[in-house]
Design a protein that fits this description.
14 helices; mainly alpha; MetI-like fold
């Protein structure tokens, strides 16, 4: 495990370098003007000389390779630069928001894995009424856009029934963040994001456990007189879970994308707003840092998938 993790960490270096270089290259070709975004409404009345001076101060006239290299050398020393659009250090922008994004994504991911696994096991005996109902719901959820699910949830639970808040992190009458308020405001966005990921885990577990039930070792366990629950959870489930473990890494990119959309719909104070502002304003330091953060999350998810798969199936090992 240590050797595999070390190899992946070494391989992640060139990937992150290429990603950051690509971010600066794409941003340089963007039609958005970072100077006008930085100046805001004041840029509408500013003179050409003032805008040129601001352009020189921000360094946007430098070649993007030079801007990338300056940012990279500073980032290696711990200085991620300053966000022009948010007017604060990039490290502070991320520190203030990433915790809320991690809370939302982790809660939704845990919900998707646990509920998808449980439903997949129950529907493993394919062809029954439960299997048909849950499979139909899973295919419907798979095709539904996550922002549409979010708007539907707000209409039903916040506006129609009034049982859950529509968004934000605190109630409108309170400025203090408490555990109870956070929990109540987390329910809808986490449930929507989790439901958007649930079909994949359900279908993989359903297929894997269903195939395992037809294998000779499971048939032998039944022939020995073991209880059906023991056969299902002790034999078929372990074999059927192996394909699902590979999903953990592959679903991270869509989880990040879905989290950005859900945060926007529910006004969740994560990194979604900062990401959108960084992209539309061509905020080079913030955009590069957020992209590196997302890429690192994807690489970590892939590593976690390989480690879990190797632990669950000793035949695989950790030589990959």
């Amino acid at each position: 495990m240590a050797r595999l993790a070390a190899r992946r960490v070494l391989a992640a270096g060139p990937v992150l370098l290429a990603v950051t270089f690509g971010v600066f290259a794409v941003a340089a070709a963007s039609p958005f003007d970072p100077v006008k975004a930085y100046a805001g409404t004041a840029g509408l009345t500013a003179s050409r000389d003032d805008l040129d001076q601001l352009r020189a101060n921000l360094g946007v006239e430098q070649p993007f390779v030079e801007r990338w290299w300056n940012w990279l050398t500073s980032a290696l020393t711990g200085d991620l630069g300053d966000s022009g659009v948010l007017r604060q250090p990039v490290a502070d922008v991320i520190a203030e928001r990433v915790g809320w994004s991690v809370l939302l994504a982790a809660t939704a991911f845990l919900l998707a894995v646990l509920l998808g696994t449980a439903l997949g096991v129950l529907a493993a005996r394919r062809g029954g009424r439960l299997d048909r109902c849950v499979s139909s719901a899973a295919y419907t959820l798979e095709a539904a856009p996550v922002f549409w699910l979010g708007l539907l949830a707000i209409w039903l639970f916040a506006l129609k029934l009034g049982v859950l808040p529509a968004g934000g992190l605190t109630d409108t009458a309170s400025d203090t963040v408490t555990f109870g308020q956070t929990l109540s405001h987390l329910v809808l966005p986490a449930a929507v994001l989790g439901l958007s990921q649930l079909p994949w885990f359900f279908l993989y577990v359903r297929q894997g456990v269903g195939d395992a039930l037809a294998q000779d070792p499971v048939r032998g366990a039944r022939a020995r007189g073991l209880a059906e629950r023991t056969v299902l959870t002790g034999h078929a489930l372990r074999s059927g879970m192996l394909p699902m473990l590979t999903l953990i890494g592959s679903r991270v990119p869509e989880l990040i994308t879905g989290a950005l959309l859900v945060e926007t719909v529910f006004s969740w104070p994560g990194i979604a707003a900062a990401t959108v502002q960084a992209a539309t304003s061509v905020d080079f330091p913030l955009l590069a840092a957020l992209t590196v953060l997302a890429t690192a999350a994807v690489l970590l998810g892939n590593l976690l998938s390989d480690l879990l798969y190797g632990l669950a199936d000793p035949r695989v090992g950790f030589d990959g």
